[in-house]
Amino acid sequence: MVTALVLQLIQCATILPDSLCGDKKPVKPHQDILVLQKYDVAVSIGGNFLTTFLNKCKSRSNETDFRPLFENFIHDLLATVNKPEWPASELLLSLLGTMLVRYVSDKGIEQSIRLVSLDYLGIVAARLRKDTVESRCKANIIDSMIKSIKVEQEKEGDFIENVDQFKLHPEERRTEFLQKILLDFLAVNAQEENLIWDYARHFYLVQWYRDVIYQRRRMKDAKKELAVRKSKGITKHRTDGMFLNIKI
User: Fold this and answer.
1) Tens of pLDDT along 44-61?
2) Minimal CB count within 10 Å: which of 80, 159, 176, 192?
3) CA dist., res. 59 & res. 85, Å (int)
4) pTM, rounded to two decimals
């Protein structure tokens, strides 16, 4: 129950205003900032909770041993990480992994705490690695599922192929289609007045939008760096040519 409440708290922090969700026009710069701020708030909540929880596990001033509770919390996250209604589990596991690595490498922390942190880190890493391998093995099943869904959508007249999708890599087209199906699934369940599904849907939207913004920034920075390197190369070539002319 505690884990579910924490996940809901994180996910409800990303609820977007109706004006932004219903607007089909391109998102304006100030709206980009709003989306990024929503995600930053969710990350901040998750980070603060994990920091407090881990500090409770380190402290021996209280009679309550928080380590079994924390271990149960980790197993709850691993049990919900692949559930569509709990996307915040992946965020918490990512933050937790970073914190545990810091704890393991910090020699100022008690040896027993570092060993426990290493055990926790091993549990999380092993499970996520297993999920990654299994998901790759199920690629054919996913493609078959996508094909079946498209056939049903064509029968109902709901499937419209976007011309811009052909410009994408096949893997990107697959990802985009699965994202749309996931959002539709959450939207249908949210109509039953279950806020958990609505919170999850908004969390995915904010997270994916943030990923797109950061990806475009990286591409823009890479282009600038390439342009700078080219300009330096041209300058160097011209300089060498000047020296050659002087020597001649």
Assistant:
1) 999 999 999 988 887 766
2) 192
3) 33
4) 0.78
